[in-house]
Amino acid sequence: MKRIILTLLLLPWPLLCIQGCWDRTEINDLAFILTSAVDMEQDGRIRYTVMLPLPGQMGGASGGGGGTGGEKSYYIDSEIGETVRDAQAKLQARMSRRMFLAHRRTLLVGEEYARSRGIRNVFDSTPRSPESRMTTNLIITKGKAYELLQSSPRFERFPSEAIRELAKSRMVLNLNMKDTAVMMSSTGGDTMVLYMSIKESEKSEKTSREIMNTGYALFKGDKMVGIMEEQEAIGLSMLKRLNSESIVTVNVEEHVKMTTRINRADSHIRVHLINGKPHYDIGMDVRVRIVETIGFYDLSQTANIRKVENILSDKVTKAIEQTIRTLQKKEVDPVQFGNDLWRAYPKLWNDRYASEWPSLMKDAEFNVKVNSIMTDTGLIYENITKKGLGQ
After folding, report:
1. Dist. CA 361–CA 344, nearest whole Å
2. Which residues pair with 229 in a beta bridge?
3. What pLDDT score does 65 carry?
4. Cβ(328)–Cβ(237) under 8 Å?
5. CATH superfamily, with its number, for domain 245-391
6. How far apart are CA 267 and CA 282, in angstroms?
7. Mutual orientation of helices 230-239 and 302-330 as an angle, nearest 10°?
8. What is the pLDDT of residues 303-322, one digit of tens each?
9. Residues 361-372: pLDDT tens digits?
10. H-helix or E-strand containing 70?
11. Are 295 and 257 in contact (CB under 8 A)?
12. Would you list the DSSP string of 341-353?
């Protein structure tokens, strides 16, 4: 009997050690920021814009384009402050839910802000918050950053989703805030950031304002100084020694055009001194596949394959050389050529080049050699209708 009484007395004691959720945060107390935008006003103050989902409009598919089947499933709000956090605090003052940054995947910065103020301050406000992630994609926008949030992409419910998918597309370099911070803090190099703009859809009954990857924004220090687009952007992505896919079209013969996809580009950069000046040897192995040919061309012949490879090598070489000339003209070094020079000749770098790089990059010589390798011609060697046309 005494044992039973003792057991009953001891049973409640373990319950006192069990802690409850005294500081819980419910989902319906949070406002999830999908993406945010930073712009500069005419008076120099900062405009901070956020895109947030509306839980009441999230039930089921809406039929495309940010809820084009009815009420939009998101809303955009904005505020002005002396700093980003100041504007965010003003915005929070009129929200019934606490803004939550852990689900933000893209941070947009307007071109005017990037050119005049620079992006270094963005790397102060973001890492200070435990909710913000350095894996967030930083994107520079043509015009105001909040205008990109006002786009109407047809394939995604939220414009933020279209921005995120484009940022991690295989057609561009996937650069997050951590990558950008490493470039900004490295020795002998500058920064490049993905650049996006808005383009209206064409030949459609109902036009939409779509988001597109335009190229890369170039930075000197932390301020934007220029843009690289089209062929120059392809050359820059190859020089960065990071994998991305590119589409290149070449003229093989008078009536033969061929579109190829570059699946991989492995570059090797070596630097040595000639007459006291840095000389860079850039070797690149490019792996390509044929995606379309206009005109009859037999790719079952080894000689024809070699001809296409040589033409591709020549075009890629010219694109890379044009990219390097533009970098020398703008005096920026997102490829980190200065870092290669520092590693090879640290004393020479500290004594002569460190204080004036990348302006001294204009005196360097660059020798580019590209070797294209055709890895795939598709399921056919030539147009399947050739014999039917009596060719």
Report:
1. 16
2. 215
3. 47
4. no
5. Nutrient germinant receptor protein C, domain 3 (3.30.300.210)
6. 7
7. 90
8. 999 999 999 999 999 999 99
9. 988 999 999 999
10. none
11. yes
12. HHHH-HHHIIIII
Residue type, 143: G
Q: Which residue has the tokens 């409009």?
A: 57
* β-bridge partners, 268: 283
Could you write out the three-class secondary structure of 208-277? CEEEEEEEEEEEECCEEEEEEEHHHHHHHHHHCCCCCCEEEEEEEECCEEEEEEEEEEEEEEEEEEECCE
Residue 25 near residue 65 (C-beta atoms within 8 A): no
Q: Is the peptide bond before 159 cis (omega within 30 degrees of 0)?
A: no
Tokens 């040919």 found at: 293
Tokens coding 81: 């402050």
Query: Which pLDDT band holds residue 283 (cuts at 50, 70, 90)?
Result: very high
Contact call for residues 69 and 62 (beta carbons, < 8 A): yes
Contact 267, 353 (CB under 8 A): no
CB of 109 within 8 A of CB of 138?
yes
Q: Is the pTM of this model over 0.90?
A: no
Q: Which residues contact 154 (CB under 8 A, 6 or more apart)?
A: 64, 65, 68, 201, 208, 210
Let me know: does 377 contact 308? Beta carbons within 8 Å. Answer: no
134/9 Cα distance (integer angstroms)? 53
- For the chain, state the CA radius of gyration: 27
Q: Is the Cβ–Cβ distance between 15 and 55 less than 8 Å?
A: no
What's the rounded Cα separation, in Å, for the pair 38 and 82? 12
Domain ranges for the chain, please list them. 27-229, 245-391
Q: Name the token pair of 219.
A: 């930075």
Cβ burial of 168 (10 Å; 0-12, 13-18, 19+) is middle
**Could you tell me where the DSSP H helices lie in the chain?**
2-10, 13-16, 84-92, 111-116, 122-128, 145-149, 159-167, 177-185, 230-239, 302-330, 337-344, 346-348
Max Cα distance, the chain (Å): 107
Band (pLDDT 50/70/90 cuts) for residue 58 is: low
Rounded alpha-carbon distances, angstroms, from residue 384 to 291, 296, 306, 388: 14, 10, 22, 8
Distances (CA, A) of 135 to 106, 164, 210, 271: 9, 12, 24, 32
Give me the count of residues in the chain: 391
CB-based contacts of 133: which residues, under 8 Å, 6+ apart?
102, 104, 177
Which strand (E) or helix (H) includes residue 295? none
